[in-house]
């Protein structure tokens, strides 16, 4: 077998992996792509399984790896060819996940990733690898960092009272430290809940920015999302797509300014957007549903069409 995937092993996430070192590098040379070489324990411990299910199953991270690398998985606990490759790279057997980033000729591209098992670490490395190859980093991949900061507790949240939360979302999204926005209510007040990067702004400076827009920081608790957050998305074809929170924020800002909102989509999302039957197959509430669940559902539609 030359490739394998999450269908066989939970530790490999939702990525289609090459299993033959020489085949992978032949493909890399043909396509002029770097190789992402994963040494993984299969079957593995809870760390290995969680790495596959949490990190390597993130839809946008998985797509970025498949689109921009030749993914190669080597089992670190099997004899034969796997053990030979393990020894070549001087990696220990029965170990936690380690990722090497290689040029098409097999030489190191950037330092390996080891002893880090979180999505932000992998994201940072794949961006660095693409830059080292002299490649442009896709907009959706850069934007994914905003989601990861918010999803993994490295962002801060604030509720901003606004006269109109729909226009409030687009105003607040223009602040460079704001990662995500969501229109909603606290009691009878229209509020925009934001996640922001505390490395770029503190709450005092953010409150001053809100004041210049005619807003103010509201109560920290009691927020309820409106039935139609991201107003401009809700009136567009983008509403029928699975979108991450950061994508929703940027696309909702780009639509009224006619600033190429599709640039924030991954290739797979762009293909879904282009489907003539999109609105018939996917409800307009898709964008605000559970991102991974909606992504899986849309992927099921792709498979049904292929069959």
Question: Brief description of this entry?
Answer:
The protein has about 300 residues and is an alpha+beta fold.
What's the arrangement of secondary structure elements?
Blueprint: E1 3-4, E2 17-18, H1 21-31, E3 35-40, H2 46-55, H3 59-68, E4 70-75, H4 81-88, E5 98-102, E6 108-114, H5 119-132, H6 139-151, E7 156-161, H7 165-172, E8 178-186, E9 189-196, H8 203-212, E10 216-217, E11 224-225, H9 231-234, H10 245-254, H11 267-274, H12 278-281, H13 291-306
Parallel strand pairs: 3-4
Antiparallel strand pairs: 1-2, 3-5, 5-6, 7-9, 7-10, 8-9, 8-11
Helix pairs in contact: 5-6
Tell me, rounded to a whole number, the average pLDDT: 94
**How many helices?**
13
Quick one: CATH superfamily of the largest domain?
Answer: Glutaredoxin
What order do the strands of the largest sheet run in, or round the barrel if closed?
Answer: 10-7-9-8-11
Which regions are unreliable across 5 or more consecutive residues at pLDDT < 50? none
Shape: elongated
CATH topology group of the largest domain? Glutaredoxin
Taking Cα atoms only, what radius of gyration do you get, to the nearest Å?
21 Å
- How helical, in percent, are the residues? 40-55%
CATH class category of the largest domain: Alpha Beta
N- and C-termini, Cα separation: 23 Å
CATH architecture heading of the largest domain: 3-Layer(aba) Sandwich
User: How many structural domains in the coordinates?
Assistant: 3
**What characterizes the major β-sheet?**
5 strands, antiparallel
Q: What structural category arises from helix and sheet content?
A: alpha+beta
What percent of residues are in strands? Answer: 15-25%
Sketch the topology as an H/E string, one letter per element.
Answer: EEHEHHEHEEHHEHEEHEEHHHHH
């Amino acid at each position: 077998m030359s490739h394998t995937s999450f269908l066989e092993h939970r530790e490999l996430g939702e990525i289609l992996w090459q299993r033959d070192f020489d085949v992978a590098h032949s493909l890399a040379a043909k396509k002029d792509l770097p190789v992402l070489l994963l040494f993984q324990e299969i079957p593995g411990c809870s760390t290995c399984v969680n790495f596959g299910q949490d990190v390597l199953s993130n839809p946008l991270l998985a797509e970025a790896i498949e689109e921009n690398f030749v993914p190669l998985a080597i089992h670190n606990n099997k004899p034969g060819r796997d053990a030979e490759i393990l020894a070549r790279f001087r990696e220990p057997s029965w170990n936690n996940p380690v990722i090497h980033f290689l040029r098409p000729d097999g030489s190191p591209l950037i330092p390996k990733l080891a002893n880090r098992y979180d999505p932000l670490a992998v994201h940072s490395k794949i961006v660095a690898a693409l830059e080292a190859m002299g490649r442009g980093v896709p907009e959706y991949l850069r934007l994914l960092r905003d989601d990861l900061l918010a999803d993994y507790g490295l962002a801060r949240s604030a509720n901003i009272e606004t006269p109109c939360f729909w226009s409030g979302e687009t105003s607040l999204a223009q602040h460079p430290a704001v990662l995500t926005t969501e229109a909603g209510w606290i009691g009878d007040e229209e509020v925009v809940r934001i996640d922001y990067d505390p490395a770029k702004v503190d709450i005092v400076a953010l409150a001053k920015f809100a004041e210049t827009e005619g807003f103010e920081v509201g109560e920290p608790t009691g927020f309820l999302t409106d039935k139609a957050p991201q107003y401009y998305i809700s009136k567009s074809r983008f509403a029928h797509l699975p979108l991450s929170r950061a994508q929703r924020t940027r696309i909702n800002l780009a639509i009224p300014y006619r600033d190429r909102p599709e640039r924030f989509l991954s290739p797979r999302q762009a293909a879904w957007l282009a489907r003539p039957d999109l609105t018939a197959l996917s409800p307009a509430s898709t964008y605000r549903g559970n991102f991974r669940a909606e992504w899986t559902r849309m992927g099921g539609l792709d498979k049904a069409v292929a069959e």
